[in-house]
Design brief:
The complex is a heterodimer of chains A (332) and B (288). Chain A is 30% helix and 21% strand. Chain A has 332 residues and is α/β, with parallel strands linked by helices. In chain A, the strands form two sheets. A seven-stranded mixed sheet of chain A has the order 1-9-8-7-6-2-3. In chain A, strands 5-4-11-10 form a four-stranded antiparallel sheet, with no helix packed on it. In chain A, a hairpin with a 2-residue loop joins strand 4 and strand 5. The longest helix of chain A has 20 residues. The radius of gyration of chain A is 21 Å and the shape is globular. In chain B, strands 1-2-5-4-3-6 form a six-stranded antiparallel beta barrel. In chain B, helix 4 runs parallel beside helix 5. The chains are: A alpha/beta (332), B alpha/beta (288). Chains A and B meet through strand 4, strand 5, strand 10, strand 11 and helix 9 of A and strand 4, helix 1 and strand 6 of B. Chain A: It holds the Pfam family Fer4_22. Chain A: This is 4Fe-4S ferredoxin.
């Protein structure tokens, strides 16, 4: 099946008549997934958006419950779940791999996060294989195929004038059926455009090696240039750590969660003064150990998908591929 | 003797993030900065089923919430001991009986009270570290025949900082084959007991009482320096890391291994812990 590129705008119009559809788009100061509507020009030719689609499933802030005190009586009411259907259109394979990681975090290991589950179940994800690569792309080194997104509902592959469309899940099949005549049954005339990653790094065996490098000088070296600004964690499509805080108005208020960062000292600061990661090097080590070792120990896959956003946005040019190389070179 | 086995695969059937409304039914001042607080649901029931060593998140809107180990529990209450060390605990100390708070839990695993059956028990704790250990001590005393000799080594900064002093002096020493050893770091005129840090005192107790490392379980809880020094002492005494049980603490927010901050290696203290053996921890890269 195929969709002519000239028919995509009409297709987005059609989908957005029934449910919100989010597309990659240039916005002031960068690019992100925004709701398609009047004046929104999708940027499907752009490689990775500055902000990943993570926010659509795991918002930067999310209300968990409201509380109220009335004459000494406390009442607590859970916030409504966001379960209205929506479509994300144009997710890159690395970002789809990051959603797989978020699924593991929020939906497995003894307990399901309802807030995430509601959004995830409501989403139809249309992935788009990469016809080009950014200067910081290295997904193939992290086990991601830039031409495939197996867990996406629909995969679109750029074939010049059109996208080849493949429904990959029952939900994807239903979506493609609903797209109607925007999709034609013919196969694309030209071969799919594929791109090789710009950067390559040998990331084999990191999870086995890293526990032996806990006390390595590497972390002090990286920490020397790191500003612990947290930019890497906020643009990372797989970083999922959150804080729980409150919004208070007199005798009522709400508790909400919001993105947090392991780069910040108060992330682990305990009442009473003890902080297991008070040193910058300990926090830097935690970030890379989590990405490349701890997550794999827990869930069986690494937590870096090679999107390259952290090094693209880092004000101090901390380069995760260089760190992976140094881990490979280090003596155990 | 079979190995001490600790359960790490907790699954939570409760609503994990949203607290239930509970009432403070009893407050006791333990020391100048520690209060024990009993909580009950509004209809007079125990807030949740809890096992020795498990955690609960006490929430005091609008100020915030903190994780505490249940120090004891009964048919109709859960009790927590709260040391005043920061903003939220300051507010918890201002609570009065009858006040309503939020509570969610239980979180985490529990002390291996089953696989410790038949062993001699040695409980080592310092300061507020007695609070989580106390739930295990009480379990052993309630099932006295299941365990061998019980020794409780407890230290605090000064006599005024000893928590659960009444139980330490009037209750536990009167139980069969139960021996309580208390020291303080700083002596005072009203203290005629030993003045010693925990680790050297532990060594002295071990030797003076002719305690053996055979068929023994040691339960260890305290601040980072107590952990470090007592671990070294126990190692010198020849106690195997597999026989040392600890309960860890870290800053926590979610309680279910999602929010990220309380990890040691690939494990989360709130979900896989807080109870680990020293043997399990020895192989984990950790920051503390």
């Amino acid at each position: 099946m195929a969709i002519s590129k000239s028919a995509v705008a009409a297709l987005l119009e059609r989908i957005s008549a029934t449910q919100p559809v989010f597309v990659p788009c240039k916005v002031s100061g960068g690019s992100k997934f925004v709701e398609f509507g009047e004046g929104v020009v999708p940027a499907f030719d752009m490689q990775n958006t500055k902000e990943p689609p993570k926010e659509l499933f795991f918002p930067a802030t999310e209300k968990m419950y409201r509380w109220k005190r009335h004459e000494g009586e406390l009442s607590i009411e859970q916030a409504a779940l966001a379960d209205a259907p929506f479509t994300v259109f144009g997710v890159r394979p690395c970002d789809m791999a990051s959603i797989d990681r978020l699924d593991q975090v929020f939906l497995t290991k003894g307990f399901v996060d309802e807030f995430y589950e509601a959004r995830r179940n409501a989403a139809t994800v249309v992935a788009m294989a990469c016809p080009t690569a950014d200067r910081t792309c290295f997904c193939s080194s992290m086990g991601v195929d830039s031409g495939a997104a197996p867990s996406a509902d629909v995969l679109l592959t750029d074939c010049g004038d059109c996208y080849e469309a493949a429904a990959q899940t029952p939900r994807g099949e239903a979506a493609v059926r609903a797209w109607g005549d925007a999709v034609s049954a013919w196969a694309p005339a030209s071969a799919p455009k594929r791109a090789a990653c710009t950067l390559e790094v040998d990331a084999e065996g990191l999870a086995e090696k890293l526990p032996h490098l806990f006390e390595n000088d590497l972390w002090e070296d990286v920490a020397a240039s790191c500003l612990t600004c947290g930019t890497c964690t906020f643009v990372c499509p797989t970083c999922y750590c959150f804080d729980i805080s409150q919004d208070v108005r007199a005798d009522e208020g709400s508790r909400f969660r919001c993105w947090d960062s392991c780069m910040f000292a108060d992330y682990t600061q305990m009442a009473g003064g003890h902080n297991p990661r008070a040193r910058k090097s300990a926090r830097v080590r935690q970030r890379f150990m989590h990405k490349l070792c701890f997550f794999e120990q827990r869930y069986g896959t690494g937590l870096c998908v090679g999107c390259g956003r952290c090094m693209r946005e880092c004000p101090a040019s901390v380069d995760i591929t260089r760190i992976i190389e140094r881990i490979g070179e280090a003596d155990v | 003797m079979s190995k001490i086995g600790i359960f790490h695969g907790c699954a939570h059937l409760c609503e994990p993030y949203v607290p239930q409304v509970c009432r403070v039914v009893r407050i006791e001042s333990q020391t100048r900065d520690v209060k024990s607080i009993r909580l009950q649901t509004l209809d007079g029931a125990r807030p949740f089923d809890v096992l020795p060593g498990q955690l609960g998140m006490l929430s005091v809107p609008p100020f915030g919430e903190c994780m505490f180990a249940a120090t004891s529990f009964g048919d109709d209450y859960v009790e927590m001991a709260v040391k005043r060390v920061g903003f939220v605990t300051e507010r918890i100390h201002e609570l009065g009986e009858g006040d309503q708070v939020g509570l969610r839990g239980p979180y985490g695993n529990w002390f291996p009270y089953e696989s410790c059956r038949g062993r001699d028990m040695l409980f080592v704790s310092g300061g507020i570290g007695l609070a989580p250990v106390r739930s295990f001590i009480r379990h052993c005393l309630d099932h006295r025949d299941d365990y061998g000799r019980i020794d409780i080594v407890y230290s605090a900064s000064s006599k005024a900082d000893l928590v659960y002093l009444d139980e330490l002096t009037n209750d536990w020493p009167n139980r069969p084959d139960t021996h309580v050893h208390v020291s303080v770091y700083h002596g005072s005129d009203d203290w005629d007991g030993p003045v010693s840090y925990t680790a050297p005192y532990l060594e002295q107790v071990f030797r003076d009482n002719g305690l053996s490392t055979e068929n023994r379980a040691v339960v260890l809880c305290g601040g980072p320096s107590l952990f470090r020094t007592c671990r070294a002492t126990l190692s010198e005494l020849g106690v195997s890391p597999a026989d040392i049980i600890t309960t860890l603490e870290a800053r926590m927010k979610c309680g279910v291994g999602k929010c990220g901050r309380c990890n040691i290696g690939g494990r989360f203290i709130c979900l896989d812990g807080p109870v680990f053996t020293e043997e399990e921890l020895a192989s984990v890269a950790r920051d503390f």
